[in-house]
């Protein structure tokens, strides 16, 4: 709809107010899918700040409250949004998931799925750097495994950080099979760069 062009000209606070007025954070998921498809058609593209605001308003509450796998509608909306705005999405959603206490099994599975199927290579690198900024836990090992599964060429500084993090935190994972698999995957994928 042509009215959506207003999203490009709103300030972040106006955009938050508009999202609240439209109740986007709680709208039914089929409508969320349609809204995200409209966002893809917007020209010009949304600014980084506007996209980050929308990522927060549209998805943050839904993702953090997941207690079972996301519905196909929510996955379709996430995939659609990430296809164009994966960088602001990672900065908002991934950061929030990483700071959530507890197991967060569904959030971890969702992050793995996004890494494997949706995110652009530069966004995968951003997600990896975000994960490496927090203390490693069993919760995030599958996400690192998913990143390695993409077989992306990592910048040397990011690979160094990954290896250093794995070495420094090894004592906490002496009985972890997931950690052992992760180390084996790093050594296999980057054997020429890891001494």
From TrEMBL:
Domain Fanconi Anaemia group E protein C-terminal: 1-194
Cross-referenced InterPro entries: FANCE, Fanconi_anaemia_gr_E_prot_C
GO cellular component terms listed in the entry, alphabetical order: Fanconi anaemia nuclear complex
One of the GO biological process terms: interstrand cross-link repair
UniProt superkingdom: Eukaryota
Entry-linked PANTHER family: FANCONI ANEMIA GROUP E PROTEIN
Protein name: FANCE protein
Species assigned in the record: Rhipidura dahli
């Amino acid at each position: 709809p042509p009215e959506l062009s207003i999203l490009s000209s709103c300030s972040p606070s106006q955009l938050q107010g508009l999202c609240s007025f439209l109740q986007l954070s709680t709208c039914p998921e089929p409508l969320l899918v349609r809204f995200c498809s409209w966002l893809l058609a917007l020209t010009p593209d949304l600014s980084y700040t506007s996209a980050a605001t929308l990522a927060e308003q549209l998805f943050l509450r839904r993702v953090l409250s997941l207690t079972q796998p996301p519905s196909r509608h929510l996955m379709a909306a996430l995939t659609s949004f990430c296809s164009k705005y994966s960088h602001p999405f990672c900065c908002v959603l991934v950061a929030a998931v990483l700071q959530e206490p507890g197991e967060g099994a569904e959030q971890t599975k969702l992050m793995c799925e996004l890494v494997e199927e949706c995110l652009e290579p530069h966004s995968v690198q951003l997600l990896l750097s975000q994960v490496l900024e927090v203390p490693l836990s069993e919760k995030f090992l599958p996400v690192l495994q998913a990143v390695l599964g993409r077989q992306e060429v990592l910048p040397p500084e990011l690979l160094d950080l990954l290896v250093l993090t794995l070495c420094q935190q090894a004592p906490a994972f002496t009985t972890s099979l997931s950690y052992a698999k992760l180390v084996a995957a790093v050594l296999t994928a980057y054997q020429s760069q890891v001494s």
